[in-house]
Amino acid sequence: MDVLDKIKGGLIVSCQALENEPLHSSAIMAKMAYAAMLGGAKGIRANSTCDIVEIKKVVDLPVIGIIKTEYPDSPVYITPTAREVAQLVACGCEIIAIDATNRRRPKGEALSSFFKEARARYPYQLFMADCATYEEGKLAAQLGFDLIGTTLNGYTADTANDPKPNYQLLSKLVRDSGRPVIAEGNIWSPQQLKQAKKCGIHAAVVGSAITRPLEITKRFVAAMG
């Protein structure tokens, strides 16, 4: 609960860069996280154990950890198997985020059995469900996830045309899930963040609008026509 109190009402900054991006470097992500902390962030979201280890050397904030891994038999890539969960536990993530969509998991494993095993193995670990729909968020809460995130709304086939950000989804999950709700995904401005806060969220994650200069530049270039 202490971790949840620390992030309550605050901004969590996602510091990630994939291998094909110019800023891909654990040292750079640690600097990004340090800058976010100085700016008032209450938490960090990070991808890969190497980035998380470096970030924790310089930042004293709760970390939502993920490992993005692609498997040939599944579209799920955010902490998809027990292997990634174990790696994140080992590097001391306060919160571990897991894809909790209804999509096929590696080896056809059901989310319910996957999470039941994770919870039994790590009973004191906080887990966040990265969801795309209301139904997925409700199920994740029933399964025992500690936090519900809207991370994947707009990024799955059945939500591609949803409004971005999806304030209605946030409001419904806050009302019905019985869990702290984390607004994440497609928040590009302080005005959008203020609107998300009005939905009653516990905290919000913002990434691309703060820590991905390539994507930020593209948006400004597009505005120039």
3D structure, described in words:
- The chain is of the alpha/beta class and 225 residues long.
- The chain has one domain: TIM Barrel.
- Helix content is 41%, strand content 16%.
- The protein contains ten helices and eight strands.
- The chain has helices at 2-7, 26-38, 49-58, 82-90, 111-121, 134-143, 167-176, 190-198, 208-211, 213-223; strands at residues 11-15, 43-47, 63-66, 95-99, 126-130, 147-149, 181-184, 203-206.
- It has an eight-stranded parallel barrel, surrounded by six helices.
- Helix 2 (26-38) packs across helix 3.
- The mean pLDDT is 97.
Keywords:
8-stranded parallel barrel, 225 residues, 10 helices, alpha/beta, TIM Barrel
Number of strands: 8
Instruction: Determine the mean pLDDT.
Output: 97
End-to-end CA span = 48 Å
SSE string, helices as H and strands as E: HEHEHEHEHEHEHEHEHH
Architecture, according to CATH? Answer: Alpha-Beta Barrel
Per CATH, the superfamily is Aldolase class I
Strand content: 15-25%
- Main sheet characteristics: 8 strands, parallel, barrel
Helical element count? 10
Q: What's the CATH first level?
A: Alpha Beta
Helix content: 40-55%
Specify the overall morphology. globular
Structural class: alpha/beta
Radius of gyration: 16 Å
Give the low-confidence spans. Answer: none
CATH fold group: TIM Barrel
